[in-house]
Design brief:
By secondary structure, the protein is mainly beta. Helices cover 11% and strands 50% of the residues. The protein contains one helix and nine strands; from the N terminus they run αβββββββββ. Strands 1, 2, 3, 4 and 5 form a five-stranded antiparallel β-sheet that branches. A four-stranded antiparallel β-sheet has the order 6-7-8-9, with no helix packed on it.
């Protein structure tokens, strides 16, 4: 039996959706899922001709009234030999609450973007993410960066108020 990256992508997406559904205990009218989910998959060969494929995904859930948000992560790893699946593991499935972007309640829109994982050009380890948030009732917007610096140091988080000229 073989497994394709497309099959892994669909399965990992299902894991993310399940994690998001579990967080739906908050007032549903104000909660929105970012339209900017991402998934990345990798494959590797292990000793004994085992093949391992891992897919990771993240999504953002945003409260459009308070500007609080959650960053949700999930992953699935499939290990198989030439004939059968040996192991299927999932991890993550948790959503971490992040601080609110605006101090007052209103009606907000948002989007999110994630940096690539570490590579030879990466200065700050695993990268980071940015939330773009705008107020639907007036001309106000912020870009909030979170950069993971790695090691024992906490993530660096800063919001930048946009100026409209």
């Amino acid at each position: 039996m073989s497994v394709s990256l497309k099959t892994l992508s669909l399965a990992a997406s299902a894991v993310v959706i399940a994690a998001i559904s579990a967080s739906a205990a908050i007032a549903a009218d104000d909660i929105r899922l970012s339209s900017n989910q991402r998934i990345s998959c990798s494959r590797g060969l292990s000793a004994g001709k085992l093949q391992t494929s891992t897919c990771r995904s993240f999504a953002y859930i945003f409260n459009g009234k308070t500007s609080d948000y959650f960053r949700c992560t999930a992953a699935m790893t499939v290990t198989k030999d030439n004939k059968d699946f040996i192991q299927i593991q999932t991890e993550g499935g948790n959503c971490q609450k992040r601080e609110r972007v605006f101090a007052t309640d209103s009606s907000y829109s948002f989007d999110a973007a994630e940096t690539e994982g570490p590579n030879t050009n990466s200065i700050y380890g695993p990268g980071g993410f940015v939330m773009w948030v705008s107020d639907n009732t007036k001309l106000a917007a912020k870009a909030c960066f979170t950069i993971a610096v790695g090691g024992t140091q906490p993530d660096v988080h800063r919001c930048i108020d946009m100026k409209f000229e």
